[in-house]
Amino acid sequence: MKNRIRSLVGAAAVSSMMLVGAAAQAAEDTIKVGILHSLSGTMAISETTLKDAMLMLIDEQNKKGGVLGKKLEAVVVDPASDWPLFAEKARELISVDKVDVVFGCWTSVSRKSVLPVFEELNSILFYPVQYEGEESQRNVFYTGAAPNQQAIPAVDYLADAEGVERWVLAGTDYVYPRTTNKILETYLLDKGVAPEDIMINYTPFGHSDWQTIVSDIKTFGSAGKKTAVVSTINGDANVPFYKELANQGIKAEDIPVVAFSVGEEELAGLDTAPLVGHLAAWNYFMAIDTPENVDFIAKWKAFIGNDKRVTNDPMEAHYIGFNMWVKAVEAAGTTSADSVIDSLVGVAVPNLTGGYSAMMPNHHITKPVLIGEIQADGQFDTVWRTPGLVPGDAWSDFLPGSKDLISDWRKPMSCGNFNTATGKCGGA
Amino acid sequence: MISKFILRGLDGRLTAFLIAALAYVVLIAIGNLFIPEGSFLHVPTYAVSLMGKYLCYALLALSVDLVWGFAGVLSLGHGAFFALGGYAMGMYLMRQIGTRGVYADPTLPDFMVFLNYKELPWFWYGFDMFWFAAIMVVLAPATLAFVFGWLAFRSRVTGVYLSIITQAMTFALLLAFFRNDMGFGGNNGLTDFKDILGFDIQSDGTRMGLFAASALALCLGLIICKAVVASKLGKVLVAVRDAESRTRFLGYRVEHYKLFVWTLSAALAGIAGALYVPQVGIINPGEFAPANSIEMVIWVAVGGRGTLYGPILGAILVNGAKTYFTGAIPEIWLFALGALFVGVTLFLPKGVLGLYGMLRQRFEKTRAPRETKRTADPVSQPSEAE
Amino acid sequence: MSAHGSILYLDSVSVSFDGFKALNNLSLILQPGEMRAIIGPNGAGKTTMMDVITGKTRPDTGDVIFDSNHDLIQMDEAAIAELGIGRKFQKPTVFEHHTVEDNLYLSLKGGRGVFFALLADKTKEISERIESLFETIRLGSLRHELAGNLSHGQKQWLEIGMLLAQDPKLLLVDEPVAGMTDAETVETANLLREINKTHSVVVVEHDMTFVRDLDVKVTVLHEGSVLADGPLDKVSADERVIEVYLGR
Amino acid sequence: MKAFIRFSIALLSLFFILGTSQGMAAEDPALKEKISALAEGSYSDRAQAIQSVAATGDDRAVPALEALGEGLLFIVKSDKSVVIGLDEGATVETFDPVTGDSLGSVPSGAVDKIKVNNRLRREIRSALGALTLLSDDPKVRLAAAGAIFKSKDSDSIELLDTAIAKETVESVKLAMQEARAAAVLNSSRDMAEKQAAVALMADRGNQSALAVLLNAKGSAEGPLLVDIDNAIAAIEKSLAIWDLAQNAWYGVSLGSVLLLAAIGLAITFGVMGVINMAHGEMVMLGAYTTFVVQDIIRTSMPGIFDYSLLIALPLAFLVSGIVGIIIERGVIRWLYGRPLETLLATWGIALLLQQTVRSIFGPTNREVGTPDFLAGAFKLGELTITYNRLAIVIFSLLVLAVLMLVLRKTSFGLRMRAVTQNRRMANSMGIKTNWVDAMTFGLGSGIAGIAGVALSQIDNVSPNLGQSYIIDSFLVVVFGGVGNLWGTLVGAMTLGVANKFLEPFAGAVLGKIILLVFIILFIQKRPRGMFALKGRAVES
After folding, report:
1. Interface membership of C47 toward D (CB under 8 Å)
2. CB D125 within 8 Å of CB D150
3. Which residue of A has its CA nearest to D503?
4. Is B155 at the interface with chain A, CB within 8 A?
5. Nearest to D358 among A44, A49, A243 (CB)
6. Residues on chain C touching D536 (C-beta within 8 angstroms)
7. I need a surface site. Which of A241, A268, B137, B338 has the fewest CB within 10 A?
8. Which of B228, B233, B242 sits opposite C95 (nearest CB)?
9. At what angle do helices B78-97 and B254-280 cross, to 10 degrees?
10. Is some CB atom of chain B closer than 8 A to the CB atom of C112?
11. In this structure, which CATH number among 2.60.40, 3.10.450, 1.10.3470, 1.10.287 belongs to the domain D251-539?
């Protein structure tokens, strides 16, 4: 019987040794870049592409000679769409693999899960996906859109260009749609839309039977006023949603749907001919005709070895974020987190839509907002874009709890939630 | 009475295990807190919280095995109890944040502020006190288990049917907790914890403390399980597992026995969840996912069902493998994990401990062919019985 | 007929499964201290009858009364067992992962409550009772063996031992000698007669030699109701019984 | 993508029909100029350009407008002329927008596509309505009337009057009258005419009539308002009843999806007792087979695309069936009698299959197209029935029927039942039980594969496809009663319909939770499902 105990203790000892050993291997002649995207589980569908995009960017940079004279080395892990595992893997990347920066996360919950880790171990995370805002953390750089860089311009466009007066806010029941819809609701009411002209609907993750909801939308839309759907429906549920829309014959001319989570990648799984004219609001479209973008797409297709693969907005966000990091590291002359965090603010790099994006003091970036209509070939045609760049707003002006908050990580303020009403850092 | 009950479980093997566990915790503590970083013997904090997490999983696996291995009730919904315990602890930790949240609201957690809650929902009352939360950690899962078990066992739902409705239970809870209207933070769950009982949750000392608490909880869980299994009740449970209706005809109310052990198991799972949350820093409805509950059963199967040490070993082995593979071969680790499950069921029907038992039996047979009747502890070791 | 004074009383009991009448208006009465043999071809309803008495199956109609005044229909298996009805199954059912001794230990009459079981101790008195049972069933040398390792016949005996440990007023014994050697069969008959001195017994059996050995009143079941009863010689001469058995 | 090409061909043929019907159109500089204006200026300028093209009433403008709507109108960079073009990758085949004469192909860089947005599309639709209202083809006239109905363009009233006077086909005439009524309600005509229009709308009595009335209500007053309110109330009342029927249909349709997903499991789990956690992955394999079939057809013989699903069906059955047989022979046969361990092994297999598919096809969704005959919807009274849902309902029942036939009437079915009821006896009677086991598992898996073909029409084709159906499938089988195909049918339909009737009141999430709790409670009442087998045999 004693043997059994010995083997138990042994197993535990071996597992701890394994970890220690892995830590000891960290070599010093490269700069390590962590990639924290799910390669399995429910989110693999979206995140795997971003992992590949990062590998390509790192590859490109190494061809240019790396950073600070050192080659970059990608460290890929799979957090498997499991949120506590995100935190564990983030910790592993930073403290075992000793990476200098991490690019990763897609869902809000995964970001929330790793936040304390980046704070505790003082490292850097670049987060490339549009999100609900209401956050600004010293160690995180948000290269995706905040609600004011996506949702509000989209609603403005529909109201002005299409004369929409009645709104369906349809979303998956999680934080991003909830917050976005809260913001939009306040915004629309402020604009004078009557409360009965707003319908809010939430569905569970992976909802696949849209018959009832689509027919509800149809009914709601036949009340004599021009109606549009603002969709914050999450990835997986979109395909059946759009298939049902097409089959029930809802045309974009009648009830346009504007989506914030549907990009080229999602459309690749669909026959888009019946969906022509439905809209999406992003900061990047693959169809944008700029030299930078053409070059990026060509490199991407070559890297992935598939001529049919598409690019999308979060990939551009990584492109911007990565180049910002490279520039900031070169400016700081070191990869040490504190210096890089300081020198990142104010860095501007070209984006893929023909301009420069700059890192703001609130760790969000400036971006153009584009409204595109779905085309039969699965691409978007830009029908409207903001005249200039829109700076990302960490704290929404349309939520009662956050309208007084601002964020500025420059010294001397160095605060993510400074309350302008009380003049204190810390929200109060 | 109680001490006698506890002592009954304390055989030599368990005592040795407890001593070994204690020594292990002390060694890790020294390695983490007193040996300077950079030394070969230093145990990084990363490893400490990782092992703390494994120990929580081990306790969880033990609770699954208590009902499956000893009473024959296969639960595919134990994740629900684990998560409920976790939520109870998470709610306490949320309340501890106080004004350090981004909106600095003294009572409302951040997610409630931006979802426009005006006041704290009633079910959040009391969670600012640790003792209340601690009671709820046990009470919430135990109550759910009691109600569910009372219904199911009384109606004699057994076997696969029971497994499927436990799965339906955790699935329903998954959907419910995903709803933001429930007031548990929806998909984002509860995060951004600051401190526990006044200790900074990110400090090395607290992490070490949580690790030690997990080890302690596991040892206590083991003692309780052992005592239960060694009692007459434990014998009745095994009888139920092997021949349920025979047990009934002997006059035992099988449903009461199942209900007792089911509720106990849920409480243990809840404790595991409560210790898990501060160490991983998040609790979210994902823990209710049926796939998670299935995985727990797999830990037990890998380690050895119907033994007390098997599930502990299985939980640590499988999760250790997961940690290692997701880092070392992130693209294809599911192949390794899937193959492990298939391989274990095919080649190690009694788990890793069963393999060990088999090898030793063979070894003993060759060494002492004449010695026939080896008396195994038949209650805790059906795997070695044949 | 009246339930008064009887140990077991079945009146007009019917059970049907999806239209198939397993028991059809079955009536039966057993006096205290009596041993009764039940015979009948496959599907005659013997086991279903046992199920009804022990609470496993609820009859559609009819009364089942135990010991003059206990209505068994409203009770579950455990309550019925505690009242004092023990049952041995057709297929020997022992707890295979328990030792022979533990099998008896679990069967011993006494507290069946959960918390009692949690804190119960094996007292000296219990050990003595187990010893006396071992004397009856003669498995003392195998006390530490796992029940699953016993031979078929040994399992049958162990199960009878478990029945005795319950100390029931009424024993229901389903095919006790199936698969036994001739010698074992004879011994089993002796054992049952011995048991009958202190308990009422219902035996279901196919083996006519064995039934003859028991030498008790016989009831013949057919298609769920009583076809004939009386001493074996009388029923085996009955036209209808012969017809049923030979299936003319 | 494919539908797009098909459309272009249709458009061109329309062109030629129109071209011939008009005789070879002479050059018309005025029209040409108006068409050129479509390419220039802001969206509002161009909306006006469309209106002015429509105002010509010249139906030679139809192809250009249609091309514009579909994104086939180009502007030649060099001379700023407008052409209709068919994009062929590197080159664009160009045609004159008025005459349809081929202008040869130019490199795609030499032309720019003229962009349209939804507002322009609406303008185009209403312009086309006006231009084609007098077409020779009754179908085109019907569509034109529908377009005007939607646009409620009060300028078209005179045109409609002319058309109605000429119209001979009753149904088209009715549609024109309704369109006229909608236009009248949107105009400044007098009260009496509007009241007549309201009456006509009340007769039509459907959703779109309701929309017209609601729209008109805002500007109405006096007796007209009363009329409109009455008409709205009447329509809403009748729609409420239709709504019930619509919900029932949605329920049946959801039920048939559940049935399809569960039916293979009813074999592997229900009949064989294998807790097959890889069942969902068999469905996934079927869906991916469909993708592969379509992919091959797309590249090598696009002509038979409409038959792709028919071709995929047997192949999906074979692929999933063979994988099923391999799993049975390789793993499950060692685990008979240990049902709970099949759960663990098949869970491992599910992970392996998911990862295999992910490695081969990538983690993203793949596009499975819908054949033309399954696209769209038709109206049955006020019920909207989409063709693909209808097809799935029929298909699921068909699969169930065939399966029952196989089990009841074939010698394989007989053997299968013999083996599941008494393995030893069957074996001693000379039935190769091993073979039967493998075939049964293969059958269940193959049916799951067939389900995958159908589900690919309504859901994501991704490596996660299977996971989303596995829990529902088990619930259906258990709820219906294990081992009973009728139970699976009734179970699936009950859950589907209940879900759809709960959804409007409780919402999708809460509705599902209520249903799960209901199943849990139901199992307490009937621990072996709705159609449980009774009797002693079940116990052992």
Report:
1. yes
2. yes
3. A212
4. no
5. A44
6. 17, 22, 47-48, 51
7. A268
8. B242
9. 40
10. yes
11. 1.10.3470
pLDDT at D88: 77
End-to-end alpha-carbon separation of chain A, Å? 60
D424 reaches C (C-beta below 8 A): no
**pLDDT of B199-242, one tens digit each?**
888 888 899 999 999 999 999 999 999 999 988 899 999 999 88
D13: buried, middle or exposed (CB in 10 Å: 19+, 13-18, 0-12)? exposed
Q: What is the pTM of this model?
A: 0.89
Closest chain D residue to B341, measured at CA: D348
> C121-160: per-residue pLDDT in tens?
778 888 888 888 888 888 888 888 888 888 888 888 898 8
- Residues of chain D with C-beta less than 8 angstroms from the C-beta of B167: 471, 474
A149-282 belongs to CATH 3.65.10.10 = no
Question: Which among B148, B155, B301 is the nearest to D344, CB-wise?
Answer: B301
Is B175 in CB contact (< 8 Å) with chain C? no
Give A379's DSSP letter. Answer: -
Q: In angstroms, what CA-CA distances link B49 with B130, B275, D539?
A: 22, 11, 48
- Are there at least 3 beta-carbon pairs closer than 8 Å between C and A? no
Using a threshold of 3 CB pairs under 8 A, tell whether chains A and B touch.
yes
**What is the predicted pLDDT for the residue at D493?**
95
CA atoms of A304 and C213, how far apart (whole Å): 87
Tokens matching residue D104: 């040869």
Tokens at A153, concatenated: 């311009």
Tell me the mean pLDDT in the region A224-228: 87
- Rounded (to 5) percent helix, strand, coil in chain D: 75, 5, 20
Crossing angle for the helix pair D222-265 and D191-204, to the nearest 10 degrees: 20
Residue B88: the pLDDT is: 96
Confidence of residue B365 (pLDDT cuts 50, 70, 90): low
pLDDT tens across D280-339, in order? Answer: 999 999 999 999 999 999 888 888 888 899 999 999 999 999 999 999 999 998 888 777
Domain extents for chain A? 149-282
Pairing between β-strand A370-374 and β-strand A279-282 as defined by DSSP bridges: antiparallel
The answer for residues whose C-beta is within 8 angstroms of residue B46's C-beta and 6 or more apart is: A19, A23, A91, A92, A95, A96
> What residues does each domain of chain D span?
2-121, 133-220, 251-539
A169 or B356: which leads in pLDDT: A169
Q: Residue A270: its chain D contacts at CB < 8 A?
A: 365, 367
pLDDT at D15 over 70: no
B5 beta partners: none
CA nearest to C144 within chain B? B375
Q: What is the DSSP string of B177-207?
A: HH-GGGSS-GGG-EE---EETTEETTSHHHH
B&D contacts, CB < 8 Å: 121
| Contact at CB, B349 and D341, closer than 8 angstroms | yes
Poorest-pLDDT segment among A27-31, C23-27, D174-178? A27-31
pLDDT value of position D10: 54
